[in-house]
Amino acid sequence: MGIRAALAVHPDTGRGAAARIAGTVAARLRAGVDRLELLGTAAPDSLPGGLDALVVLGGDGAVHHAVQYCAATGTPLGIIPAGTGNDLARGLGIPLDPLQAADAVVTALHERRHRAVDLGHLDGAWFATVLCTGFDAAVNARAARLRWPGGPRRYDVAVLAELAAFRARTVTLTTDGALHHLDATLVAVGNTPYYGAGMRICPHADPADGFFDITVVGHATRADLLRIMPGLRHGRHLRHPAVRTLRAREVRIEATGWPLCADGEMLPGGVVTARCARGALTVLG
Predict the structure, then answer these.
(1) What is the pTM of this model?
(2) Residue 151: predicted pLDDT
(3) Quick one: 147 and 220 in the same domain?
(4) Which of 211, 242, 245, 248 is most open to solvent, judged by the fewest CB atoms within 10 Å of its CB?
(5) Domain check: are 103 and 163 in the same one?
(6) Share of the chain above pLDDT 90, in %
(7) Is 117 among the domain residues?
(8) Which structural domain, as residue segments, surrounds residue 29?
(9) How many other CB atoms sit within 10 Å of the CB of residue 107?
(10) Structural domain tally of the chain?
(11) pLDDT value at residue 278
(12) Does residue 206 fall inside a structural domain?
């Protein structure tokens, strides 16, 4: 019966960038499949069954929804980045140019080339990039509310705004059974290295090794954070004495009252346990 795929387009992504190139992307994908269905969303409850591949044209939020479907069904996922952050694409080495990414998806479909990558599992949901709580989650929440500026600068503005109010607090982490009581400013659990439109918060995270890389920024003053944050673009923050790293297959975070987000999506706060599910997602390419 040939290859049946769906293309989920989130038209508002990237200030309309996805909508502008959707026709071109669909035309290129049709060269690699026998049947292509066009969808307006990648929400799991809106997707048809029996797909041989789901391709998402959009940003990290769109991809996050698609991951929920693909992890549950085993359907291979194709990613064509067209958003503000595109952090999963960046972490998996997928071209950030959407037309180049579309061509790579077509090649993978022709060659039936798939790879398995890890996911984080959290209270019945999946995440593919970074789970974070504390200062960085507060920054993410503020950045999501901003309408200007666009791109990575939005996060820079949000950082400056949050510096005035945020304070470190005691956090309890349990990593593979080991208990840590820490004064912390933020905790980031990385399946892949990037969040916040290219910040390498967990620079050594490998989505195919079965482990999370965990970055903890301990008690930090505003001056400390101003020194640490610029280094996130290149992973140089690990040199700061307030920063420590851990590795684990499972992590429990107790930080009551702190904001929490995964893949840039805000979640209810409280006590959470995340587990690394090895090879839970199949990606095209």
Answers:
(1) 0.93
(2) 64
(3) yes
(4) 245
(5) no
(6) 66
(7) no
(8) 4-112
(9) 13
(10) 2
(11) 98
(12) yes
